[in-house]
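Much of what follows relies on a compact textual record of a protein's fold. Think of the row as the fold of the chain written in a discrete alphabet. An example makes this concrete, so a full record is given next.


***
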Amino acid sequence: MTERAHSASSSNPPALLCLAGPTASGKSAIARAIAQQWPCEIINVDSATIYRGMDIGTAKPSREERAMIQHHLLDILDPLESYSAAAFRRDALTCVAQIRSRGRLPILVGGTMLYFKALREGLNDLPTANPEIRKELETRAAQLGWPAMHEALRAIDPVTAVRLSPNDSQRIQRALEIWHISGKPMSELLNASEQTDQPLKTVTLSLEPAQRSNLHQRIALRFDAMLKEGLVEEVQALRARGDLHTDLPAIRCVGYRQLWSMLSGEVTPEQAREQAIAATRQLAKRQLTWLRSLPERLTVEADAPGALERTLAIVGRLIDDRTITD
């Protein structure tokens, strides 16, 4: 794919600039560099940084960084609460409108690919959550384990099952719940033509390391830095509340889930570290797989010399040809 994108005509709204990439690929630093060169504000596309009290393990921007550049959709929920792709789309589009009304450029930055998909493609009319069915599925999972639940999902919705990890409890549960409520596979409903929201024009700048080993090294170094910064103490503070547990999406975030198990005495500190790094690598692999399914993305080798300069040049051209501006 070339770096050139189609210009937005005066009759069409500008495309939304999306900066995506796997965890630890350097998205946040590059986004800040873009915002220092042009009048931009950052909208976070991240299912973990939305939670208050979860700063170190989510690599949340510091107070100093937030003072320099306006960030949106950070610290908007308590870890006891849940968030959805539909809620993200609603909140993100509200932020986009407000940022544009100030004559500034919104940049959507993160690694939660489901949120990007909801923004780009719109949302299908999926059934809302059913607490009774969820409780029943959780009870079955406690007896059989999530890999067995994944096999059950494979029997009714192989399309969805193939893209989920056997231990991705949150998404397996949701797919099974949808089938029990509607009698239809989630993949079928997602492909249905009727949508509650319309697709939006986006330009996705994808930071993708050329060498997987470089990304793995960065993941390990970053997690060790988080431990030194006080990640264990951060998880201890969450546990001390007494109302949080491992069935919550917030506590299932990589790093938090493994350290929670360590503090429960289930694994040693060494095992928790190894498991957290392995889980982060698996997350990065899923993120890269999703990104590589987007043929129109603009790719930058995140670990190549001059990656920042190359990214800034692409953004400059998108601004010059008015693809992402009014």
